[in-house]
């Protein structure tokens, strides 16, 4: 029996190795980098607070919001976020839990910020999907889920607010399976609903978890149980709930798939936990789940070759740029996901796009308590690199090798509008603000060759409002967005003489983006078709390669 067990263990190890090329060094293997996806109001902020509480990063839950408030006064552009109850900026936070280093990357919540969200999800290895037990799968959850699916991200599901009237457990699971086309396996099973909700049965570990209603920050009491027939259960669970629990779990075991780690890692199966974030209930079990099953840092797709996390040299890529986090310094912070190696402060890395060396002397690690200098970081971590605009989304940093990460999407601007400064004397300030947002990837900015002013291109209507709000708050400059005569933008590339000839013949339609690259603007698809026919040497693209 022992020989067989050892053999099974060995086989598993070999399979792990086969799928992961080589076992990771412990420092890297213990890292978990993930995001939370949810519909607004499902409980993402509350869950984040409890993570940090258990991660020892904050003393009392409630500080994320309190800190958020403080940050908002420092960085006013978040006024928008406050007014509309949406989260505009994404940040990353690190904390330790049970021997693991958790890196939680926050995703902006609103659908109009899908660009940012897509890019954020390129920096994580897994996602937690939070749903409201009474509402089930909501529109925004569905959209974000689809993004995760495109990357085959493993997903852990947390069904929140079980302390309130919620749907039947089977109904919730069914809805997820139906709407998201993913297998769902219960990691825990709720006992009672609403007022009668007393806790859950931890199916994966045969434990009874009882919710503490008196103290919202207290962890649930965990009682080891020898299966559902254990007489100990009756000591803690009222008879009618116990009977229901036994029936339902038995049914679940018959009807639903059992947990399969490989299916989870492949993104085809999600384990679901039932809890109540505000009561700290179910949070620890979810964290245990991430620690135990959550993927280690994964290889990064890049050209000309993939980057494996256990490579000894450092490689990382910028997935987000945020400016004015601290208005005192008009700096920007590039969020870098380390794809490989062991980074140490002061390292000189090569900025692959410009081929220039960069001394990374003041990298920031986003510890939940505050920004802190990162003395070291490993593959899987997110570090912030303050800079003056050299670092752009999609940029790669290496120890010299010319590698370029791939898979960071660029989006075709779908809505174009003219932007004007309320005060024409301040046109220069407007230009500066627009250039900054273009570099952050918050919008596309075009300067027409013949007309004055700027045209801004975005993916969602709300982005115009966010931009107007940020320009006013950060630059003290009221602006107006107005309809543009153009509806489509195409980057024009090809042999230089051909591009020049084309530009000269179409000046009224031409504009330069923030890099000075040529863009053709029109409102007619017919124009685009005609150019493609008449200028076979030119390439018209709706998106610009992130370079
Ligand atoms: P977010 O928009 O997803 O970040 O959601 P929040 O974390 O801000 O939560 C939205 C609302 O739901 C807040 O009023 C929370 O206090 C409340 N809430 C969060 N978790 C729970 C829970 O487990 N039970 C109940 N009853 N309310 C909760």
Automatic annotation (TrEMBL):
Gene3D superfamilies: P-loop containing nucleotide triphosphate hydrolases, Peptide chain release factor 3, domain III, Translation factors. Pfam families: EF-G_D2, GTP_EFTU, RF3_C. It comes from the Bacteria. GO terms for cellular component: cytosol. InterPro entries: EF-G-like_DII, EFG_III/V, G_TR_CS, P-loop_NTPase, PrfC, RF3_C, RF3_dom_3_sf, RF3_GTP-bd. One of its GO terms (biological process) is regulation of translational termination. Keywords: Cytoplasm, GTP-binding, Nucleotide-binding, Protein biosynthesis. The keyword Electron transport does not apply. GO terms for molecular function: GTP binding; GTPase activity; guanosine tetraphosphate binding; translation release factor activity, codon nonspecific; translation release factor activity, codon specific. CDD domains: RF3, RF3_III. The keyword Cytoplasm applies. It is found in: Cytoplasm. Residues 29-298 form the Tr-type G domain. GTP binds at residues 38-45, 106-110, 160-163. Increases the formation of ribosomal termination complexes and stimulates activities of RF-1 and RF-2. It binds guanine nucleotides and has strong preference for UGA stop codons. It may interact directly with the ribosome. The stimulation of RF-1 and RF-2 is significantly reduced by GTP and GDP, but not by GMP. HAMAP family: Rel_fac_3 (MF_00072). Belongs to the TRAFAC class translation factor GTPase superfamily. Classic translation factor GTPase family. PrfC subfamily. This is Peptide chain release factor 3. The gene is prfC.
């Amino acid at each position: 029996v022992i020989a067989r067990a050892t053999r099974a263990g060995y086989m598993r190890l070999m399979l792990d190795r086969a799928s992961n090329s080589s076992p990771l060094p412990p420092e890297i293997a213990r890292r978990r980098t993930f995001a939370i996806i949810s519909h607004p109001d499902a409980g993402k902020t509350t869950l984040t607070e409890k993570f940090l509480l258990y991660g020892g990063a904050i003393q009392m839950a409630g500080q994320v919001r309190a800190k958020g408030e403080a940050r908002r006064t420092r960085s006013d552009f978040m006024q928008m976020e406050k007014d509309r109850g949406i989260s505009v900026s994404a940040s990353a936070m690190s904390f330790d839990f049970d021997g693991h280093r958790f890196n939680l990357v926050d995703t902006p919540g609103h659908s109009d910020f899908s660009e940012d969200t897509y890019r954020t999800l390129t920096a994580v290895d897994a996602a937690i999907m939070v749903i409201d037990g009474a509402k089930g799968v909501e529109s925004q959850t569905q959209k974000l889920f689809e993004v995760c699916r495109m990357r085959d991200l493993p997903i852990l599901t947390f069904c929140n607010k079980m302390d309130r009237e919620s749907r039947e457990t089977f109904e919730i699971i069914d809805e997820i399976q139906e709407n998201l086309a993913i297998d769902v396996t219960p990691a825990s099973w709720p006992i009672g609903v609403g007022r009668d909700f007393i806790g859950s049965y931890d199916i994966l570990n045969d434990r009874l978890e009882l919710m503490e209603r008196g103290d919202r920050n207290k962890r649930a009491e965990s009682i080891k149980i020898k299966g559902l027939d254990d007489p100990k259960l009756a000591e803690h669970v009222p008879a009618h709930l116990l009977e229901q629990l036994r029936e339902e779990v038995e049914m679940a075991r018959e009807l639903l798939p059992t947990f399969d780690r490989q299916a989870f890692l492949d993104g085809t199966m999600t384990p679901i936990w039932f809890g109540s974030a505000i009561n700290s209930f179910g949070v620890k079990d979810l964290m245990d789940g991430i620690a135990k099953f959550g993927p280690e840092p994964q290889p990064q797709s890049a050209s000309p070759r993939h980057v494996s996390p256990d490579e000894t040299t450092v490689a990382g890529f910028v997935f987000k740029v945020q400016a004015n986090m601290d208005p005192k310094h008009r700096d920007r912070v590039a969020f870098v996901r380390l794809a490989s190696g062991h980074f140490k402060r002061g390292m000189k890395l090569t900025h692959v796009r410009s081929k220039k060396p960069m001394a990374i002397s003041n990298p920031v690690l986003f510890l939940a308590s505050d920004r802190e200098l990162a003395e070291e970081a490993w593959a899987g971590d997110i570090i912030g690199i303050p800079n003056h605009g050299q670092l752009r989304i999609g940029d790669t940093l290496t120890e010299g090798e010319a590698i370029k990460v791939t898979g960071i999407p660029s989006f075709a601007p779908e809505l174009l509008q003219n932007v004007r400064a309320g005060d024409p004397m301040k046109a220069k300030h407007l230009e500066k603000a627009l250039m900054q947002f273009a570099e952050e990837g918050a919008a596309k900015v075009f300067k027409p060759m013949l007309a004055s002013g700027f045209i801004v291109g975005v993916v969602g209507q709300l982005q115009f409002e966010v931009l107007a709000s940020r320009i006013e708050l950060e630059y003290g400059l009221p602006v107006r967005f107005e309809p543009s005569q153009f509806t489509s933008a195409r980057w024009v590339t090809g042999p230089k003489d051909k591009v020049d000839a084309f530009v000269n013949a179409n000046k009224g339609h031409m504009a330069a983006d923030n890099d000075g690259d040529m863009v053709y603007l029109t409102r007619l698809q017919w124009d685009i078709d005609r150019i493609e026919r008449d200028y076979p040497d030119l390439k018209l693209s709706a998106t610009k390669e992130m370079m």
